[in-house]
């Protein structure tokens, strides 16, 4: 929502919104000329409508309930109300665009594409789900012909998009509150791909390679016939090196300062998309060496009592597994993208939604088992009603049953104490989840203020 608002404000639209929480995004919107109310009530709609020549368009996300007082007032005033995806579709469909879809890696891949196009001088517009380090924001209003956007599949609304290039990172069942099974998700993604002028997809994903068609494929496999390939040469905790091939011809080496095989795949996808958009390989090759992942993607928050605190958005078993694998690679390889090589990995994980936790309880437990210690934060419901037998305690018990150390905590204060008790100086404390567990760093800082033992990155 904030990314769309920022783009429209920079394009001289009158943008008004509300956010009860003061954040860097709301402050940036004010600087861009948007009017941001801190309270959400019916009076906001009256204020917006007064003294204007035409009725405002009201935009809501799926997170806004029908009982929201502003939404009720807007409907009562007869204002047109549209879903966020309709406005995003209007932006995507108005110019040459790259829409990045898939179950995992959307934010990272779209951020990398926007950053690479910017470095290559193509001046893209970007609407991303996380903060892009190159821009210091989740949005950028460029003067170039290309727009890069993250296409969220969680509610199926991406079928409204008609991009020049649709990129699909991978497919795996998630968002079980919306999709009853994998077939339903595949069906939605087929509708999305049918709206794209061309499709670029990950051949290494078994669901994509067997269930979807694409105009162009990318792969990390040496034996693949994909148009775009990156054959790994070295993978360690400090990054990746790979030979880059296009249509079977080697163009050079890719050097990525981000660890993890999943990040190499994301980077290859980004390079492939940029090549299809007209960027030169030489420009991309140089820009790749300077890339930084977006916010909340293995995001170093700082040092606390000799521990490195890293924040990550992982909230699906595959994401948790990939993030922990990357962290343990730093330990085992003796190389790291962090200020120093950690001795152990302590995982702090917050389950997100009862439905997802119920669906993937066993897989979450298996993925978390690769950590040296596991702390399970209070489940973040995201508005869902509880499901019997589904809780943070139940997940911790599953991890314990597999022979690993795990504890469930009742609240954030207890979590701070547990981090201190279960970790030591030299450890990496990896905080994962899509809920409010990202506030843990602030609480750790508060606890250390008197001792001066917290240092922000």
Task: Name the descriptors.
UDP-N-acetylmuramoyl-L-alanine:D-glutamate ligase; alpha/beta; Rossmann fold; Protein-Tyrosine Phosphatase, Chain A; globular; 457 residues; ten-stranded mixed beta sheet; single chain
Overall description:
This protein is of the alpha/beta class. It has three domains: 2-79, Rossmann fold; 87-288, Mur-like, catalytic domain (UDP-N-acetylmuramoyl-L-alanine:D-glutamate ligase, 3-Layer(aba) Sandwich), CATH 3.40.1190; 299-456, Protein-Tyrosine Phosphatase, Chain A (Alpha-Beta Complex). Helix content is 35%, strand content 23%. The chain has 16 helices and 21 strands. It has helices spanning 2-10, 24-31, 42-49, 69-76, 84-93, 106-119, 182-194, 206-211, 261-276, 281-288, 317-333, 354-359, 361-368, 392-401, 412-422, 440-448; strands spanning 16-18, 35-37, 58-60, 81-83, 96-101, 125-132, 137-140, 146-150, 165-168, 198-202, 216-219, 228-236, 239-246, 249-256, 299-304, 307-312, 345-349, 373-376, 406-408, 428-432, 454-456. The strands form four sheets. A ten-stranded mixed beta sheet has the order 7-6-8-5-9-10-11-12-13-14, with helices on both faces. Helix 2 links the parallel strand 1 and strand 2. The protein is globular, with a radius of gyration of 22 Å. 47% of the residues are buried. The model has no long low-confidence stretch (mean pLDDT 95).
């Amino acid at each position: 929502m904030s990314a769309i608002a920022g783009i429209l404000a920079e394009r001289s639209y009158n943008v008004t919104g509300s956010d009860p929480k003061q954040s860097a995004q709301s402050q940036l919107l004010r600087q861009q000329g948007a009017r941001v109310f801190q309270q959400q009530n019916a009076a906001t709609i009256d204020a917006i409508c007064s003294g204007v020549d035409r009725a405002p368009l009201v935009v809501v996300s799926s997170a806004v309930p029908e009982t929201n007082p502003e939404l009720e007032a807007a409907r009562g005033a007869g204002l047109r109300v549209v879903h966020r995806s309709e406005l995003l579709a209007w932006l995507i469909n108005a110019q040459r665009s790259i829409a990045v879809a898939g179950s995992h890696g959307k934010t990272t891949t779209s951020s990398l594409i926007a950053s690479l196009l910017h470095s290559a001088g193509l001046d893209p517009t970007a609407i991303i789900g996380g903060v892009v380090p190159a821009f210091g924001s989740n949005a950028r209003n460029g003067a170039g012909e290309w727009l890069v956007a993250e296409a969220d599949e969680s509610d199926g609304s991406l079928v409204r998009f008609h991009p020049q290039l649709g990129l699909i990172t991978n497919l795996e069942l998630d968002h079980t509150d919306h999709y009853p099974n994998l077939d339903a998700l595949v069906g939605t993604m087929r509708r999305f791909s049918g709206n794209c002028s061309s499709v670029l997809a990950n051949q290494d994903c078994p669901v994509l390679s067997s269930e979807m068609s694409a105009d162009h494929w990318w792969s990390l496999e040496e034996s693949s016939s994909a148009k775009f390939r990156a054959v790994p040469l070295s993978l360690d905790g400090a990054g990746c090196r790979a030979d880059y091939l296009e249509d079977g011809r080697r163009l050079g080496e890719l050097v990525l300062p981000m660890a993890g095989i999943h990040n190499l795949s994301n980077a290859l996808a980004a390079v492939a998309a940029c090549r299809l958009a007209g960027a030169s390989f030489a420009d991309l090759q140089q820009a790749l060496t300077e890339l930084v992942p977006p916010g909340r993607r293995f995001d170093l928050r700082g040092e606390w009592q000799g521990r490195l605190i890293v924040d990550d958005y992982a909230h699906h078993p595959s994401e948790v597994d990939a993030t922990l694998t990357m962290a343990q690679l730093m330990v085992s390889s003796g190389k790291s993208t962090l200020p120093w090589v950690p001795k152990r990995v302590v995982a702090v994980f917050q389950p997100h939604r009862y439905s997802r936790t119920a669906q993937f309880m066993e897989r979450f437990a298996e993925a978390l088992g690769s950590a040296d210690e596991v702390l399970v934060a209070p489940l973040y419901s995201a508005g869902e009603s509880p499901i019997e037998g589904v809780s943070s305690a139940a997940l911790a018990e599953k991890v314990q049953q597999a022979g690993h150390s795990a504890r469930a905590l009742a609240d954030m204060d207890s979590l701070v104490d547990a981090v201190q008790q279960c970790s030591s100086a030299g450890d990496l404390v990896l905080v994962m989840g899509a809920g409010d567990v990202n506030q843990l760093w602030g609480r750790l800082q508060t606890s250390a203020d008197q001792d001066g033992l917290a240092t922000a990155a």
